[in-house]
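Hello,

Following up on my earlier ticket. Below are the two sequence lines again, exactly as submitted.
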Amino acid sequence: MKQLRVAVDTGGTFTDFVVLDAASGAVEVFKVPSTRGVEADGIVAGLRGYLERTGAAGADVAFFSHGTTVGTNAILEENGARTGLLVTEGFRGIYEVGEQSRPYGATTYDLFFERPRPLVPARLTREVPERVLFDGSVLVELDEAATRGAIQELVARGVTSIAVTLLFSFRNPDHERRVGALIAEIAPHVNVSLSSDVAPQIREYYRLSTTVVNAYLNPKLEHYIDLLGERLTAAGCSAKQRYIMRSNGGVASFASAAKRSVQTILSGPAAGVVASCRLIAESGGFGNVVTFDMGGTSTDVALIEGGRPMRRGAGKVHGRDVLVPMLDIHTVAAGGGTIAFVDASGVLQVGPRSAGAQPGPVCYGRGGTEPTITDANLVLGVLAEESPLAGGTLRLDRAAAEEAIRVKIAEPLGLSVIAAARGIVEIVNVKMQEAIKVVSSNRGYDLRDFHLLAFGGAGPLHAAPIAEELGMRGVLVPAFPGVTSALGLLLSDVRHDYITSHLARIDTIDPASVRATFEALRAQGEAELVAEGFAADALRFEYSLDLRYVGQGYDLAVAVPEIPTSRDALHAARLAFDVEHQQLTGHAAPDELVEIVNYRMTAVAPVPHASIASPFTRATDLAAARLGERTTYVAGTEPAVTALYDRAKIPEGAEIVGPAILLQGDSTTVVGAGHRARVVALGQIEIRTGVHASTPAPELARA
Amino acid sequence: MIDPVTFQVVQSRLDGIVQEMQDSIFRTGYSTIIRESQDASCMLLDASGNVVGEHVVLPLHVSALPEVVRAVLRDFGDDINDGDAFITNHPYLAGVTHSMDMAVVTPVFNDGVLVAFCGSIAHKSDLGGVVPGTSYGAARELFQEGIQYPPVRYVAAGEVQRDIESIVRANSRTPDLVTGDIRGQIGVSRLGERRVRELFVKYGTATVLDAFAHMQDVTEARIRAILATWPDGTHEAASFVDTDGVRPDVRIRYHVRITKTGDRIHFDFTGCDDQAHGPVNIGPALARGCCYYALIAMVDPSLPNNAGVARVVEASFREGSVVNPRFPAPCCTYMAATTAVTEAMLVALSGFVPARRMAGNGGVGGLSITGKRTDGRAFVQYESIGSAYGGRATSDGVSGIAVLLSNTRCAPVEIVESEYPTRIRRFELVRDSGGAGKYRGGLAPRRVWEVLVDDAQLTLRGGKHDLPAVGIDGGADGALGSLVLNPGTPREKRLGSRFSGVKLMAGDLLQLEKAGGAGLGAPQARAFDAIVADVMDGYISRDAACADYGVERAALDAAVARLDAEHAEEAVNEGVPA
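Thanks for your patience. The regenerated structure is below:
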C-alpha cells in the first residue's frame, strides 16, 4: 500500500503538484491548468489524473496540503462576502479615512487618485454605544439593546459576515466578545470576526482593516474549503490530515484556516520560503540565502539567515492593510511577462505593467503585442524555440519576439535588437537587485554571506548575473525550481500565532506579570491544537517580545528562548533588542529606556515531513548529460557558443564552466560566462560567480 | 552621451537609495510627527543642489531642499568636508518651508571631489518660540516663529558639534525628541551617502554625472513637448486664505496669471496681495514649488520633480507681496498659503487642459494641544487632519484625505490617547460637507477631542473656515470648516481658523470640522443611482438630496427601500437562512 503525501499549489496559470510516496520515497512532479473561480475542479482533476495514471487509490492519500489563491483573488476581484462592520459609537471615520495620506511617489501629484473601494460600504457600518480607555478600563458600558438593533439592521440588509472593531479591544476584549455573542444569538448563520481575536494590536485602523479583510474572506474560504473537502472525499481521498498553507509559513487544518482567512493571503509565496528553509537546512553549508521566486508577473524575495526566515507582523497586500504574522516576503512587480516600452520621454522602461498569462509574451502567440522579459530572453537565446516551456506544453515564436523588440524598443532608441533585448534584461535585473537589497543590505545584512536561492519558472534564468553583481556567494537552484512552492507544502508544520498588546517598561514590569501573560497565550495555543487532535506533549512553543525605545514608534520582535521569569531574563531580552536595533538601523541607544509593546507566542505542532533526497538518478558521466550547444547572448551583445545540458543527468561533483544552459521540464538555468556550476546536496545546482568562481569550491555535504 | 540602458539602471539605483532612506527615517523616528504622521522627506541632490532622486512624501519638501543645499554652498563654499552634516530651518536664508521643519544635508565625496548631497526635511515637535509646538498662527514677525537656525555645521567630519547641539536642546521644549529626530535624519543621510558613493565607484563619475544631467534634460523636454500641444493663451485665477491670523476680517488674495506661448510657460504672481501681517506669507521658492506641483499634476503625474521642471517654470514676483515678502515677515502657516496658490494655478491651468479640471479642495493644516501632564512633564500633541478633494472632471472627490501639497498620516486614536492627556470623542465624516455637483466634492472629517488636564493651550493652523472650497461648472461650494469649543453647551464658542494659545481646561471639548471639497458640474446632472447610493451611505442626507440635487422625496425613498429589500432577498437566495 502506498502512503501518498500530496501537495497542491494553485497559481494563476498552472496548478502545481508534488506527490511523494512515503513508502517508496518516489516523488512525482506535474502541472495542470488552473481553473480560476472553480479552483477545486482543477485540483481534483489533477489528483484523479494522477491516481489513474499510477494506479493508486484515493485511499492511499494519507496527507493533503494546499497553497491557495482563493483569498488573494477575492481581494483582487472584490468578490468576497457581503460584510457588515460594527464600530465604537462616533468612530465610523476610522475606516473611511484610513491612513489619510495618499501613497507616496507619483500618486502625490495625481489629482485623479482613487482609494481602493472599501470592502464594507458605509451603509453596512453601524455604531455601538460603548467605550473602553487606553488602560482597559470601561468609560461607557456596552448598550446591549442598541447593539442588538444594529445587528438586526445589518442582518436585514443581507450581510453574511460581520467585522467588529471597538476601540482598545486589544486591551480589554469584553465588549467585542459580548457583541460577538449577541451576533451568534441573533443570527447564528452570520460569520463573525472580532478584532481582538484577529489582530489584537494597538492602532485601530490597521486592526479594523485586518478584521474587515478577514470577515470579507471568511465565508468564501469556508465555502471553498468545505467544497474541496467534499470533492476530495468524493474522489476517494480519505486523508484526515488536510492542511492549508498560511502567510506565516505554517499549515493549518482546513477548519482553522477557514476561521482566519486573512492569514492565508500569502499562502503560495510562504510555501516557497518554507521549502527554501528546509532545503538549506538539509543540504548543509548554505545557512544564509535570499530566496528569488520569479514567476510570470511578480517576483518574491525573502531573507533566510541561519536557516530561519525573517518574519513581520504587518503589511499591505493588494492595497489592503493587514496586521497578521507573515513571512517577510518582499514582492516586486516584475516577472517573465513584464512589459518593456519606450515612454513618452523616450526613456526605456521595464514594468510594472505585465502581459500576465493572457495574452502573455509576444512569443506565446496568444495575441500579445508588447515585448516582455520572456521575449528578450528568447531573442538572446537563453530560451529557445526548440526547448518549449512548462513541461513542453508551451511553444515559443522567436521571430515574433524579435520583431516586437525591433519595432517597439530597438528602432526608437537606435539600438540593435540584441542590445535592446540585453538592455531589457539588464534593467529588470537591476530592479531585482534593488528588491534583494530591500530585504538584506538595507537591513544590515552582508550579501557576501548569502547565496541566492532561485526558483519559480524564471528565477534560475536571471539569478547568476544578479548574484554576481551583488557580490553574493553564489546561486542555488533546487531540484525542481518550477514547483518549489508546492514542495514547501510537504515540509511545513502546523503553526498558530498569538499576540497580545500591553505597553509597559521592561525594566520595571513585574516578571510575574510577563510570565502570566505568556502562560495565558500558551494555554490558549495548547487548547486549540489539542482540540485539533494533536498530542499536548508533541507541541512546541516559541516566544518573543516586541520591544521599542520609549517614545519610538516602531517596535522590533526579539525572540526569547523560554518564558522569561526573572528580571535577568528580561534584561537579556533588552540587550538582544539593542543588538537587533543596531543591526537593522545602524544605531542603538543602550542608555535609553525600553518598553514592551506586544507579547507573541507561536504554538507549533510538528507534522511528519517529506524526505527531500535528490530525485535524480546518480549519473557518472558529464558527457552523457550534454545535449549539444547553441549560440546565445547570455553575457553581453557578442554571440557566445553555449553548451546545453540535461539537468537531470549531470553527475555530482562534475563542474560545468559557463556559458552553459541547463534544461529541465519546469525551468531553465543559465550559467554565465566564467561562472562555475556543480551539483550539490539534494540534487541542487550551485553556481559560483565573480570572485567566488575563481576560488576552489568548499567541500560540501553530498546527497 | 549616456546609453539608454545605463541611464535607466542608474535611475533605478537612485530610486532604490531614496526609498531605503525614506523607510529608514520613518522606522527610526522618535516623534509621533515622523513615525505616525510621516511628515518627513528624503532626497538625493547633485553637487549644485538639483534633485536627482526623490520618493515624494510632501511635494514642497522636494522644492525646498535644493534651496537648502544652495544656501550651504553659499555659506560654506570650499569648507564642506567629508563627514559633515549641516542643519537649518531658516525660511529666508535657506528657503526652508517653515521654521518647524528642520533640514539636514550631508555632502557626498568621491575621490575627494564633491559629487552629490543627501538630505532630508522633517517637521519638529518644538523649536522654541512663543507657543509650544513653535507654529504660531498669530506671529507678526519671523522671530516669533521659533529659533531661526541659518545653515550651521551640526556634525564636523563625523563629530557632533556639542556646542551647536546644546543650543538646539536649550531652545526646545522637547529637546530629546528634537535631537533624536535629527540623529535619525543624519543616520539616513549617512546611509544614502554610502550607497551613492558605491554608485559612483561602480559606474564611474562621468557616467553618473551624465545620468544626473540627462534626467533633468529628459524631464524638461517632456514637459515642453506637452506644452507645445496646448493652445497658446493666457488664463488667470485667484484663490483666498480667509485670514492671516492677525487681522480676522482681512482676506488674503493669491493671484496668478499664466501665459503659455509655444513650449514656454510664464507664471505672473504680481497680482497677489501685499505681504500679510500674519504668517500666511511664502517666499518665491515655495511659490515656484507650487508651480512645479501644478505643472506635473497637469502634464503627467509620473514625471520626476527635478530641476528639469524648474527650468521650464518662468515666474515673476512683486517684492513686498504675499509671495515675495520682505524679511522678517512671518511665514509659518505656509500650507494654507501654498494650497491657495496651487488651487489658483490648477484653475488657471485647466483653462489650457479642461480634461483635468478639478473643483476646490477642503482645507489643510494642523492642530496642536500643548501643556503639562499631571506629573509635570510637558507634552506637545500635534495632529494633521486631512480634508477632501473637490469633484474631478470624471469622478467624485475623495473623502477624508490629505489634499494636494499635504500628505501626512492621521495619528491613531489609540496612540494619541495612550501618549497624551486627551481623549478623542468622535472621528467621522461630516454628512453633506461635500459640495453638490454632477461629481460631488469629497466629505471632510470631524474629530472631537476632550482635554484631560487644566491649563493646556490650543493652536490651530486651519483653512477654509470663512471661505469655502469653490465649485466649478455649476457645482456647489464645499461646506466650511470650523473649530467649536464645547459644542452644544452653554459655553459653546466658535474659534477662527488660525490662532494660538487659546487656554483649555480639563473637560473642554474641541470639535474640528474640516472644510469639504466642492462639486463639479450641476447637481441636477448627477446620476440618480449615485444620489441614492450617497443617501444609503449617509454621505448626503435625504433633505440635501431633495434640496440640492432636486430629487423627489418619494422617488428617493422608494429607491432606497427597493435596494434594501433586494439585498435582503439576495442574501436569502444565496442560501442564508432568514
